[in-house]
Amino acid sequence: MFQKIVLSIVLFFAFSIVAFFLLIKVIDFNEYKPRIQKAIKESTGYEVMIRGDITLSLSPAGVSIFDVEITNPSYHAEVPFAKLGSFDVALDLSALLKKEIKVRHIAIDSLSLLVEKTKEGTFNYELPPVPKITDKKAKEGDIILEQEDGFPLVNVKKIKFSNANIVYVDQKSNTQIDFDKIDLDINHIQYDTSKHHLQALFFTADTHIDKIQYGRYALKDLSMSFEIKDAIAVSENLHYTLFETPIQGSGKFDLSGKQPKISIKSKIVDLKLAMLSRELLNQELLEGNVNGDLRLSFFVGDSHAFKSTLNGFVQLYGTDVTLKGYDVDKIAFMLDPNQRSKGFSLGNLISGATGVLKGGNTLLKEINTKIDIGYSEIHLSDVALSTATNRVAMKGAVNIIDEKFIDLKTALLDARGCATFEQKMSGSFAKPSLKVDDASITALSNVILSFSTKPKTAPITPKKNDENCTVFYEGVIKHPVVTTTPLGE
């Protein structure tokens, strides 16, 4: 008898719940769309247009809204800055029976978000400031005081974004960044009421982004798992593809300040130089692979903010790399005052005439690039290459904000690391100025004199070894060991 009573009670509640939801299912909530849109406008200030249907579900208990557009009435009200393919909210049924609202999860599909920064420095999603009234005896019709700082996701435990696309446009710098096909799962959401804004949030997340495009530069297949606490997200398994090369490392994303700060550390293995030169230099210049490390940090913002805050280093090293279009050994031969070479002149060297410097390829036995980046300047700490017979090095710095060369020098080296030929570069990227020192001019003059048909031309005098020369380069690239075979062997 007792079992029948319990079973009857259970069946009664079960049928009551089913009947309740069946009743809700027959209600057409689309009739309430104007009221919902008006309520959102009054509470947030944004215009929301629900173009699709509003439907209810039983398992899980929740509501789905389709085809939603959001506009800012104070900025191009005719153009939505956000579109949602669907917005789903699943509720905790047991909490509903206790007259409580707890959200099991929120799912947003096919979000399209356009973020524009105007020439005046404002954003397209910003609303005009709402005047505040501090007098508690505000009259009827006066603007109501804003509520105390809170966070609407207190009872949300999980949020999922699928197939989201974000476009950031800076009208002042005329730059654009595209984030394509973002999938983001946010879990274990907790909120500390003693803190404010993002500092109050804790959650874990997994994300994947198909591509981040900035101009002609692209970062692909970015994925990571991270934990955010006190507005700082940390990931120890950051993966991405750069220049068609898979790279892994770690990252830190600091959202606690006025501008987000990103710090990344990565190990580079078999970086494809062909793709690097194609995307970074916009030409077919290098072929081969290199290994290395990078550690960079910067603040997120416009191009000026990125360049002025970029800090860290990049180091790449490789062997048997092909330099296309230039014969380094031939150029070195031309610069040797003890040799003769037809068709060469100092003017051709400085102007970089194609007939003299271009043509042929060079197999670089070793190549090393170590640059240190410090807030607007890139310093060439250890940049050099070697062929089978020659070694070339560069040093100096580049200002990436002013786009100027700072005492940039390229030198052909002897076995001691001293410069047998040195060329300086100054000026701007658009109008570089090339200078050659007196010793190099003397060496080049000897070569030019050797081309003269005048009988009174002075013979070439071999350059004497300077025992007290100033060493130009002392890095990791060693001078090639040139072996000669005696004649007749």
TrEMBL record:
InterPro entries reported in the protein's UniProt record: AsmA, AsmA-related
This protein's GO CC annotations: plasma membrane
Keyword field: Membrane, Transmembrane, Transmembrane helix
Gene Ontology biological process terms from the UniProt entry: regulation of protein targeting to membrane
Segments traversing the membrane: 6-27
Residue intervals of the AsmA domain: 3-185
Matches recorded under Pfam families: AsmA
Record-given protein name: AsmA domain-containing protein
